[in-house]
Amino acid sequence: MADILSNEEIDTLLAMFRAGGGANDDEAAPAGTSAPPVTDESVREVDLLKPNRLSRDHMRGLERFFENAAKTISATIADKLRLETRCDCVAVEQMRFGTWLEQLPGPAAIYVTKMEPFRQPVLFTASTSLLYGAVDRILGGSGKVSRVPKDFTAAEYTVADALVGPCLDRIVEALKDVVPLKWTIENRFCNPSMAQILPSQDVVLSIYFQASGNFLLGDMRLMIPFVSLEPLLEKLGKDTVTRLDPGAMQTTVANTVRKVPLDIGVELGSGRIRLKQLLDLEPGDVVPLDARLGAPASISVQGRPKFLGNIGKVGNRFAFQVADVMGKP
Questions:
Q1: What letter would DSSP give residue 292?
Q2: Contact criterion met (CB below 8 Å) for 97 and 201
Q3: Does 200 reside within a domain?
Q4: What does the pLDDT look like over 17-58, one tens digit per residue?
Q5: Which of 21, 143, 214, 286 shows the smallest number of beta carbons within 10 Å?
Q6: Together in a domain, 266 and 209
Q7: Could you give the count of Cα atoms lying within 13 Å of 273 in the half-sphere of its Cβ?
């Protein structure tokens, strides 16, 4: 079956569903009986164009990458504009390119970028209110703008690149463990009709960032064609650690945990006293224990029994000699 069905094929499939053709056609009704009537309850809507090319594992992996990108973009915007700014990755979705264009808020500055080795161009957009405020801030203004133009001049785009470029850098850095990317901007415009760079039915990945801080508020969106991500599916479903071979982190983990401080304690013995005696205890009082030097005892690590051994002395200090490790097979 082709990726995109024709109208005739869709009508044929829907007719089969309504007529019960989805079941085994060889199982005919017994002679003298009629098939039960098809009611509306037995018919359900089937989305034959649902873009489900990326699995849940792939989507979870991509969400992790772009959430990390959002954190670094926050720091980048704050540094460039000298403002307290926060950037969040609001959504990572797969959809048809036509749907992505319909959801594109306006007005927005649209950047057509080439990210090698991706085969298809990638679109990056930023709301003009956010970008124009950034331009004003970079040029020494307050960043508060009351009127936003429908389009930018070439000079304004050049200034805006001082913010857009580092944001693209952060996105590329977030994906470097999956694929090394090198971006270049091929075109910029504010007219959404010029953004029809792919067939409307092509599946794309949509990433939605939202930036906010003081008076600054706007969104940034990234569109990556599925055909560019398809060769990377094996890596996208795993994070940096799970992509490693089994045992690859053993030395690193061992060197790390060896430096972790632990509390150990030895139970020297036990004793029984009355509650009145316990309440009357004062500094200097002696509580007799039922243990002697050389008697068996246990040692606890982080509050859990771990070793068995004997109590002894080294010079003027008590000591514990390990005799066995508890829990060993």
A1: -
A2: yes
A3: yes
A4: 666 544 444 444 455 545 555 555 555 555 555 678 888 888
A5: 286
A6: no
A7: 14
